[in-house]
Design goal:
Layout: E1 4-5, H1 6-19, H2 25-37, E2 49-50, H3 52-66, H4 71-75, E3 77-80, E4 83-86, H5 98-109, E5 116-120, H6 126-134, E6 139-144, H7 147-162, E7 169-172, E8 188-193, H8 206-211, H9 214-217, H10 225-237, E9 238-247, H11 255-261, E10 266-273, E11 279-286
Parallel strand pairs: 5-6, 5-8, 6-7, 8-9
Antiparallel strand pairs: 1-2, 3-4, 9-11, 10-11
Length: about 290
């Protein structure tokens, strides 16, 4: 059996992905190869030759990716912060742009000992688990309504707890419920949320349209239905001086800050851009009581 150069197999994989219109074809080809070989992407150069079955297996994965199956579904994982999460059909795949929201949240917690944190619309548990990993002293609560997502979140929470992280507390709940987490009312240091926010009818990539759960992506006609409820819930949960960050659609750079400013108990409202310069998340703090 003649071994084959891995470099040529990756070049062919990248060509196939490029022809299918997949963004970043070379990156995806290398990540699929690294997954298949069980090595880091940066170590691929240390594997010059592979057996023909490896090339066949790589091209089988590439064909699925060319059909726009999400890369994360093929490798079974996605990353946020320093946490690697299990993902797959039935749950929203965390996106790289959420890293900036996470960074803001962790910066907000600096100097606060044993903070209480709530992640609303947690999905895989990504934000909650990334915070728990970075802040072992925190008590982190994750809230999710969808039963499929709850299953993924529970798996990821158990996985991180087994790895030594402080266990995250998972709640089945709805942000529309005015009694949600009532025992934490006025006690939370940080509320984070990556809600469904894409306006209905907005064109999205095939990976999103065909594989992410519709209810985890789209937020009614204007994309703000769940966002409004998250703001109401977060304002109720925050302690005085506590912070809230909500990811939003790039068309919401004015509307989400306006919704936050409409809450008289919130202050210091600010909108933030992603790495591409697009409006991506808004933040606010619970105002201190007037003396």
């Amino acid at each position: 059996m003649t071994r084959q150069p891995l470099r040529l197999a990756i070049l062919e994989a990248a060509r196939m992905l490029s022809a299918a219109g997949v963004p970043s074809p070379r990156t995806d080809a290398e990540l699929l190869a690294a997954h298949l070989l069980g090595v880091e992407r940066t170590k691929l150069m240390m594997v010059p030759l592979v057996d023909p079955p490896v090339v066949e297996a790589l091209h089988a994965l590439v064909r699925q990716r060319a059909e726009r199956v999400p890369l994360q579904h093929l490798v079974g994982t996605a990353t946020l912060g320093n946490v690697t999460l299990s993902v797959g059909p039935g749950v929203f795949v965390p996106r790289p742009e959420t890293e900036l929201l996470l960074a803001w949240g962790l910066a907000t917690l600096e100097g606060i000992e044993h903070p209480t944190v709530v992640d609303l619309c947690t999905g895989t548990g990504a934000l909650a688990l990334a915070v728990a990993n970075a802040r072992p002293d925190a008590t982190v609560h994750a809230v999710e309504l969808d039963t499929n997502a709850l299953t993924w979140a529970r798996h990821n929470i158990d996985q991180q707890a087994a790895a030594g992280d402080t266990p995250t507390r998972l709640h089945a709940g709805d942000v529309h419920d005015p009694t949600l987490l009532m025992d934490l009312e006025g006690l939370v240091d940080l509320v984070l949320c990556n809600p469904p926010y894409v306006p209905e009818g907005t064109p999205v990539p095939p990976e999103v349209r065909e594989h992410d759960p519709h209810e985890a992506v789209f937020g009614d006609r204007d994309g703000l239905d769940v966002v409004r409820q998250v703001i109401a819930c977060g304002a109720r949960l925050l302690r005085h001086g506590g912070g809230m960050a909500i990811e939003h659609d790039d068309t919401h750079g004015g509307s989400v800050p306006a919704l936050l400013k409409a809450r008289r108990v919130l202050c210091e409202v600010e909108d933030h851009t992603d790495l591409a310069g697009r409006p991506r998340f808004a933040t606010a703090y619970r105002a201190e009581p007037q003396l």
